[in-house]
Amino acid sequence: MGNKIDLKDEEIVVSTFLKFSKIEYLEDFRRGKLYMNNLNYFKTCEKSEEIKDEDEGIKIFFPKGKFEISFTPYNSGKVFKTTPISDGVIRTNEYNDINIFCMYTIYEKHLSNDFKFTISEKIKKDKNYDHYLFITKPAEFIKRINCSIEKISPTYFHQRPVEYVNKKEHYGEMGLFKKFDNYEHQNEFRIAIQVPKEMKDENNAFRLDIGDISDISIIRKTENIEKEWTITPLKCLDSDNSNVDKQTKNANKI
What we know:
The protein is of the alpha+beta class. The protein contains six helices and 17 strands. The protein has one domain.
């Protein structure tokens, strides 16, 4: 199932990429313009609760009660313990100028047992996400991104799925590709890049031009997404290859 995506340092299987936004931004995206705000924008944006995340770019996090400090005087046999440390957060500004492009993606692990295609009500009800762009060939899309990146030689470039962690359990590094699981419904695939300031606009955003992608993309209304998408278990279709083709076309019929 899905498409193998070459991320240079690893390979993952992705079913598809979706980008939720206003139609005017998606039309620009379809022309191959990937508008990438910097991380600080996502920390402070008041435009939408789905966009703003004050915890973006935390360097290290550990939850309440996970650590305590003790003092044991040499040869005394006594141990003095402190009160367990409350939520420990080490924040940093080192990621603030890195530019980010986010997409919703579907992996095998996201498919429900009843084969229903659903997205979060938070996404469906957000007025900033009234349309979405569907990437029909995700491997080709990533290939075009990689080719464009090679031409500009950024000081930092990485792309991968975001890992979602439980705030009560996780301790250790966070960084650019870990978020708390209250955002897990976004199923985010993230592209992060750092370029010289002169390549950015007055808002510190960067626009990556990968060339027109109208041949591998479709724009639709978000309100109809669950009506237009279906999930069909291929094992039920193996006995009839022609039926597989028919069902696959129907599954992505726009």
